[in-house]
Each structure stands twice: as structure tokens, then as C-alpha cells.
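Notes from hallway chat w/ T.B., transcribed later so I don't forget. T.B. wanted the structure written out for a chain they're using in a teaching module, and asked if we could keep both sequence and C-alpha cells in one place. Agreed to drop them here.
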Amino acid sequence: MSAPKILLLPGWQNSDPGHWQSRWEAVYGDHRVEQHDWMRPLRGDWCARLEEEVLAAPGPVALVAHSLGCILVAAWAAHSGHAHKVRAALLVAPGDLERDDLRQMIPGWAPIVRRPLPFPALMIAADDDPYCEAGRSRQLARDWGARFIDAGARGHINSESGLGDWPEGRELLNDLLKEE
């Protein structure tokens, strides 16, 4: 079976150069799904961009999502006829877009789609994420049928978390792809 194309799905405002997703793009050649508007994300537009990228891939894909990217995966999978191309998804630090403050900053994403994902998924979330309480992350993982790993005190698992190339995350992705 051919290796999947890794599609990176950053969250709101994109992933800065120090973010592990940007590092993976530089180190491993993973492909970032570019959005038309990183500052005012529209669910329909972001889903359409993901659909375009999945269809453009010559073979299977693996989704590597951070924050709003996790919510995007659930929304896209619920409506796409091409989810069968996804071998697996690594979901990192979902944002709770049903929380009042985040719903106001990023409108149009609530309610969060809570259907089981039609592909294997692993969620990694910190117990001190300022954008999603630990219990909410665990509930989203259950709703999506994703295995859950508690990352401990890592904040939003982004640049401020000091992960660098985050080799542990890459190893978890590789293990997830071997399981499939």
C-alpha cells in the first residue's frame, strides 16, 4: 500500500514558523492545506479547500490537524463523499468552538459536528489547554471515535509549548498509520 500524502490542517490564524506543523512541513515535506482567509475562517470555505486537496491527491491521505483544523476534519468528514481516501487522522488540541468567547471570535463553527469519523483517528490534547477544557477534549474524542492521549501540561500544543520538531507526535502519527 502506498504511503499517504500528509495534509497539514492548521487552525485559526495558521501555524507560525515555530509551530510543529510548520516544522513538519520543512523537515518531512508534508503539505499544508492553504486557506483563503486564515483570520476569518468560514466553515464552508475551509471544507471546500480540504475537499479540493483530498481530491487532488493521487492516492490516500493522512490528515494532521491542529485546533480549528480538528473541528474542520469532523465537519468535512460528515459531508464529503471522499472520506474513504483518508487512511487516518491525527487530531491535536481541538478548540472548543462551542465556548462563548471562541464562538464570538470564530463564528459559524458551532455546533461542532459530533459524528464518528469514518477513518481511524488519534487525538492528543493537554490537560491545561486554554482553548479547550480537558473534559471537553475527551468528549470530542469519544464522539469522533478517536483514541485519546493526554499530553499533560503542554498548553495548546503549539509554538509556545516548546515542542520544536515534536518527534513524539511524529512517532504517534507513524504508529497510527501502521495500525491502519
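Follow-up for T.B.: Residues 43-56 form the longest helix (14 residues). Might be a good example for the class.
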